[in-house]
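Worked problem 6 (solution included).
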Amino acid sequence: MKAKLALVPLNEINMKKSKFPHIVLLFILMGLFNSCVKHPQLLYFRNQTEFVPLEGHEITNQLRIKIQPDDVLFILVRALEQETAEPFNLLPSTSVGNFGNQGSNATLQGYLVDSNGNIDFPVLGKMNLADQTVEEAKLMIAEKLKPYLKDPVIMMRFLNFRYTVIGEVGNPRTVQVVGEKATILQALGEAGDLTPYSNREKILVIREQNGKREFGYVNLHSPDVFKSPYFYLQQNDVIMVEPIKEATAKVTDPVLEILPIITSALSLAALLIAIAR
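Solution. The predicted structure is:
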């Protein structure tokens, strides 16, 4: 008894071959749509025309940093006859070094503001600086020194003005600010900028002031970012950048991790079949 060979029509074979590249193409497109981030998401300010009305407007939301409990202040008293000013300094002016020094010994040169907003000032005793700006505090100290010194000059700055950037950025870090002005754009730049998977529409700022903690969001796709009370930073702000859903899916879905390998293998197989023909 002879075995019968099952003959498959030639046109059916060709049909199966012709469908194979289409399946490969489908897998490739699936991989592209699942892994790529759309161009508008990568932009900081998407619709440029929305920002035009902001040109020439006065800046009204810039914060003047105010002294709070647990702040550390650098204060140096100068006078025409410096010897008369030395009793009013924590350290002799000759040992203070560079006024801009922010090194590890900075706290030794500073006044710690206690929980009631007071500092212990040499000779003058306790002095309340809570909720004052640096300029206001300098004027108050200079006024109190007038009975002792002629034309005193007060040098003051924050030693603890720093912020922290965490989350979906190039280089999460804590940054020490020189001066009294820092914006959220500068903070993101110092942290290595946002990544392609950063959510530019919902950046969280955590702020503590006057014994309270508050949370605010900044949207870098909207011109309202420049009017936000969180555009200008305060001491000890924490900026948290969350990822977009594409990044979350890439981490949590193991299928998406092996999909590029599968699509590459199928592409290679399709190429070999095309060459074999």
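Discussion: The longest strand covers residues 198-209.
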